[in-house]
Specification:
- This protein has about 425 residues and is an alpha/beta fold.
- Helix content is about 30%, strand content about 20%.
- It is built from 11 helices and 20 strands.
- The structure holds guanosine-5'-diphosphate, 6-O-phosphoryl inosine monophosphate and magnesium ion.
- 6-O-phosphoryl inosine monophosphate binds next to helix 4.
Amino acid sequence: MTCTAIIGTQWGDEGKAKIIDYYTQDADIIVRYQGGANAGHTVVAEGNKYIFHLIPSGILHKGKICVIGNGVVIDTTKLIEEIDLLKDQGYDISERLIISDSAHLIIPYHKDIDEGMENLRSQKIGTTKRGIGPCYSDKCLRLGLRVGDIFDREYLITRIKGALAFKNRQLERVYSKSGYKIDEIIDMLDKFRERTHSMITNTQNYLHNSLEKGKRVLLEGAQGNALDIDHGTYPFVTSSNSSIGGALIGTGLNPFCITDVVGIAKAYTTRVGEGPFPSEDKGEDGDLLREKGAEFGATTGRPRRCGWFDVELLKHAKRINGLTSLALTKMDVLAGVEKIKIAVGYKVGNRRLEYFPSKMLDRVDPIYEELNGWNEDISSCKSFKSLPENARRYINFIENSLSLKVSIISVGAERESTFVK
Ligand code: GDP
Ligand code: IMO
Ligand code: MG
């Protein structure tokens, strides 16, 4: 039995899906544990590009089981769309997708409130408007609807009525939007039940049983450590724990089940939405990274802010998650950058900070070191040895700064452009 957690170490979009797809070759079960359709996970396989929002990124490997865990918030319409799209592309996944009966449901009012709040906020977050924050809030307020509720009509009606008593007032009075009728929500959930009833189960039990039988499990994080509601750059974060704690809560597994924790990091840094980003490059280099790395959001299409690799951000991710190794993606994008900067620490005035601060990250100045770049196209390299010397130096510098081994190197979006260091 193995249970490997795959976790984003920056502000999301590190290439988690690509690495999940790679690891799936040696796994039996792949589990999404938090977040919702705010995630955009891209896999490029056999020349085709697939973007997953809710379905785990291992789904393209026939015979592998994919689980949507209890910690995920499910947009039922988006999930059905995703299942249908995969069917059109030749993947019938009805026998391979399992959905937790205790995952919470995103109801259309969550998306309305997400948008309404974002419009009213003086300090914008730049959310994906997928209803994530309002849905997790309702979970905590005990106003949420859960997947398993759809099997008991009387109970479901009581739950919807209870929620609408608050939501319709809120929509009408705070956001000047129209409220919802109970039947609209029931209709939506009926469609969901018709399509997915055979997939819904107690996934906590399923996962524990599978591990007891010796199965190999991959836990697929969404977002990244710096977007974690507790350990990220609050309030510019998402509304779930994208770090290792979320992997336990969002699956029901315990700390002793986890065998390793692989951090995914881009060879530079990006961020979508608002919030501090010390190593951001707003000049030509940042533009070059955006253009070469095709840095546009997989969910919203927004241009991603780009900047340099940040060792302090990664040290924070290593500590919080107990990373056992690192997968470094998008190394190919750095080719042609003459001098590559790396932020090796932060200072405020003349004072060097000793650890990643929990506030005022917008006031720190990064301390940079510069490494010589390389011009060769490395996208067809298949081993560490075959990389140009300066690319090897760059990777060694990262390993040494973090005291963490780089286990996987990615040099292109395709499945094949991946090798073990
Ligand atoms: P995720 O949310 O962490 O799964 O990452 P996204 O899918 O949002 O963004 C990563 C983007 O980079 C996708 O378009 C991937 O196809 C692409 N990608 C992943 N690894 C590499 C790589 O090594 N090189 C290049 N050029 N693109 C990559
Ligand atoms: P993946 O899994 C990058 C960002 C949003 C916004 C903040 C809050 O593809 O890496 P939310 O809609 O979650 O309330 O938005 O979090 N964000 C992401 N940024 N990648 C993601 O997911 C993200 N999911 C949310 O842009 O700044
Ligand atoms: Mg993404």
